[in-house]
Amino acid sequence: MSVPENFDHSRFGLLTDLIDDAGYQRSVDRFRSCGIVLPTFAQLADPSSIPDGIRSRLADIDRDAADPLNLFRVHWYNDLHGGIVDVPEHVVLPTELTGVEAPIIVAFGNRFPMIGAHKVLAAYACLAPRIVTGQFDPTVHRAIWPSTGNYARGGVAISTLMESRGVAVLPENMSRERFEWLDRWIADPDDVIRTTGSESNVKEIYDACDELSLDPGNFIFNQFTEFANHVGHHEVTGRALEHIYEHNRDRRPGLRLAAFVAASGSSGTLAAGERLKSDHGARIVAVEALECPTMLNNGFGEHNIQGIGDKHIPLIHNVTNTDVIVAISDRSCDELGVVFNTDAGRAVLADAHGVDPGIIDQLGHLGLSSICNVLASIKTARTLDLGPEDAIVTVATDGAEMYGSERESMAAGRYAGGFGSGEATEAIAEHLTGADTQDVEVLDDFGRDRIFNLGYFTWVEQQGVEFEDFEARRQQSFWKQVQGLAPAWDSMIDEFNAQTGVSTD
Q1: Which domain CATH number covers 322?
Q2: How much of the chain exceeds pLDDT 90, in percent?
Q3: Pairing of strands 104-108, 90-93
Q4: For the chain, how many structural domains are there in total?
């Protein structure tokens, strides 16, 4: 069975035609008056194609400023200081650290502007097409960004740059750093909505959005259902990671791309794997928390690997093209976060394991979900028996700077007696070099269908998605149609920019 050619993607908000002339014109007028230019997906995938005038002006703009020019930094080719690099910054983790022969290549998400996380790309990918098709009117709508943290921050940042009002919806128990950032960017306290619970309480976020949606002035950008999130990562993240892999292959002829690993979260990032699988044969590995193993065991419990969600299968997860699922404990991420960010931990890595100091320095750029992705990559390498020519590519969603408060909690709790070489050695042995092949499932068609079917309860029974729309996602023809939307949106972005007349010189 394939998806009919006339399948109505508009039910997912996937439009390539203008639907509201008046709203569109108001958006054009606002962007003209504020001097806002929108980058295309192609430009974000290849920043060398950004107009020279914009690139030169960016040199004088702080990477974290609320300046619309920073829309042209929403890509993987930044350094930490706002400059553009030829190859996205990454680290190749060696056997001395991982205990496996397969090189694990980690792309750094904290190079993204404003929020220091790649979720700002997902937010842009969701908002820009809605503006150029006339669905979202910044003079009328509030952009509602439900998230467990980084996507909400990214949405607020993108909304601000587009002279729109952004509202963050996130659980009250997320890291303190997330709320401190929101305090700096949001003037009206009512635009930060704290829902009950923590990372595991996604339904409570949905419930808050259901209530907000009763106001026609609120436009909900639910990252778990926004297929533009998938498109953005397929076009931008997928091409960037492909570039990283090819760069390493050029330096090491014969290197093949064996797998792409990413935490499920909203499943947007997993879309990068679709390109890597299509072009290079990489297996797609989806990761979740062991404390709430939704894909492995139907979801229960609670975890704290902030940014990976749980208890549901995102609507935008192409489950029937996923090859492996892995579960990682949040304790392993918490404890290794301490190891990577303390003198005692770094000393053990250097002295006992012989890890290069340069590599150790890079480990400080790994947030909790980033560590989760690394550990899942190690388990994948062991499970698939990968060798030195089998590269794994993964992403560091955000950096350790977002979790200082979590490390403070560890210092006051588990490590109240201090954290020295003994504690570091124990954590490394248990969680890093001791990573095994438990809590891994290599999927066959039955396993894929089982996980796909789990989504029925969230989306059809609970959230009211039409069964036909839910079921269409089982077919790869549906996803190919979705992934082909970016060129049409780019044409509409070019036309929108032409209408505003804002100079790129």
Answers
A1: 3.40.50.1100
A2: 79
A3: antiparallel
A4: 2
